[in-house]
Amino acid sequence: MNDSKLWQADKRHWMHPWTHFDSFQEEGSLILSRARGNRLWDSSSKSYFDAVGGLWCTNIGLGREEMAETIAEQVRQLAYANPFVDMANEPAITLAAKLAKLAPGDINRVFFSCGGSTAVDTAFRLVHFYQNCRGKRDKKHIIARRGGYHGSTYAAMSITGKSGDKIPEFDYISDTIHHLSCPNFYRAPQGMDEQQFCDFLVEEFQQKVDELGADKIAAFFAEPILGSGGVIVPPADYNRRIWELCRANDILYVADEVVTAFGRVGHWFASEDMFGVQPDIITCAKGLTSGYLPLGATLFSDRIYEVISTGDSDRYFASGYTYSGHPVACAAALKNIEIIERENLLQRVVEVGAYFEERLQTLRDLPLVGDVRGKRFMMCVENVRNKATREVFPDSLNIGKWISDRAEERGLIVRPIVHLNVMSPPLTMDHEEVDFVVEKLGQAIEQTH
Ligand code: PLP
């Protein structure tokens, strides 16, 4: 099919995720046809540097021959295996053991699903199941944050705190899910320094615990660094202090590492290595397979496993998917992890990430740029109408999209989120590519008045 036929068929038949019906009808999608490493090509052979890494996921870059071979070989060998209790397959067993080794502390148990949303959904059900098994049936409330994104299933979207994503046409679980302030220092109440802002957030959490009662709160769900809520690195010590409050109040700490795991910020998992937090549950997906195949995983502690697996012999965790522990996806994940290890990509992210942060900070001089923030290979530029007051552009102007379109003309893909431009490049990005990203994004912003 030629491009115009593809565009017509796209609009006629494929309802994409998060479709805004008005703009979707107006614009033709960028139809991608090929990828190699950090580069993408569209159907007219124009090439782009993919500074978004697909959707925070193509950590090792695309088009790797050994990934293709591993996947093809596993398809030949065993393309599918029933994952229910009396059957198993080698790639899933080996991957579960590998994840247990990489995960912090006593997180040694793995439940496989199909992506990030189902990993979060599983965590939600696991949290309730665990509290019920302990006889704590009233411990059902969940604390999360405004600005947090946790996925698109019913439970995951209920935990999500991004107001723009929670349109009123849907109903969400709202009586037992509570959203506290977003830990975004750039938007902190005026006059507070970072330490005061951190104290304010911790105090707010404590007040919520006092208000609901610790015996009613099952878990806290949080991304270590908020991703699609605007790449928000919380104030120093915030994650650790909230985790300590959770411990002190018998509240499970669920770290949603769907974006931050597998090297994005230079660690297998950011919770412990970057923030000194030992979660009870970690959800992950995306970089687990670098996007080669869909896979999610909910990792949890031996302590939780012991509670849910002992006692009533009729009890069982009634949750699972046809594709839990899919052998081909698990084989792809194992090869992906092997490549990250062999090419020392975590260390590379630490080194090149420091340069990326430093170079992006130069964009602050541009009249539109209010904030440049993030960590290593997870970065964001916030565009504002007024730098002094931090006033944002009206959403209707869709300034982030306007800028990303200008970047795209220059061969650079950056992700627009309302007035933000977000970047999460493959971990293989080098210094020259950093320079390219900063130059082209800077030009795209400069072109915007
Ligand atoms: N959790 C976080 C932190 C995410 O960023 C996402 C997706 O972007 C999800 C969960 C949902 O993952 P998926 O889209 O694979 O279902």
Automatic annotation (TrEMBL):
Lineage: superkingdom: Bacteria
Name listed for the protein in its UniProt record: Aspartate aminotransferase family protein
Keywords, ordered alphabetically: Aminotransferase, Pyridoxal phosphate, Transferase
PROSITE patterns: AA_TRANSFER_CLASS_3
A matching Pfam family: Aminotran_3
Keyword check for Transferase: yes
Swiss-Prot/TrEMBL cofactor(s): pyridoxal 5'-phosphate
Gene3D superfamilies membership: Aspartate Aminotransferase, domain 1, Type I PLP-dependent aspartate aminotransferase-like (Major domain)
Provenance organism: Microbulbifer flavimaris
InterPro entries noted in UniProt: Aminotrans_3, Aminotrans_3_PPA_site, PyrdxlP-dep_Trfase, PyrdxlP-dep_Trfase_major, PyrdxlP-dep_Trfase_small
GO MF entries: transaminase activity
Membership in a protein family: Belongs to the class-III pyridoxal-phosphate-dependent aminotransferase family.
Membrane-spanning residues: none
